[in-house]
Description:
The chain has 195 residues and is mainly beta. Helix content is 12%, strand content 49%. It has a ten-stranded antiparallel barrel. It is globular and about 50 Å long. Residues 1-36 have low confidence and may be disordered.
Amino acid sequence: MFDARTITALVLVAFGGAVAASSLSPATFQHGASQESDTEDAFQRPAPEHVEMLKAVGEWEGLLTWSFPGMPSGESRATETIRALGPYHTVASFQSQFGGAPYEGLGVMSFDPATGELMNTWSDSMTPATLLMRGTLDVESRVGRLSWVARGPDGALVPHRNVTTHGKDAYESIFYMGEGADEVEVMTISMKRVK
């Protein structure tokens, strides 16, 4: 049977796109008497990263494959619904199976123009902890990167990362566990837009 903490730590699917530095700098948000109206306008205007994230809104289906060290490999069909939360965030609902058990996860993707970071929270039906991932997005290439620390198969905290490449109506997300020479690829999610 799969270790639910390991599986959960690696499943991230709110792929509205991971983000890089925004065109809005932290200084944009400093309120001054002479800059207040410009600041308010800039604060309300979605950054290019927000626009890129919202391109993922829709219905998706595909395949999740995994190969964790010391565990049998497997695959499962997956579905995902991504919706917009205003012009700044996406909310993803993901369904699949792990080891014959139903799996459901919920992710909220946000971009912070003040720090230039993508932040993604992930909660699911197999783990009590909510994960927080941080990363970047190259808007031109549509390649996103997220990283976080979560428990591995032995219960120890281990670095994890994810690289997601978006096409017009498809994306592929590859997950890694460990770092340096000990890093291994453990999971791939390949999805196509159906709506």
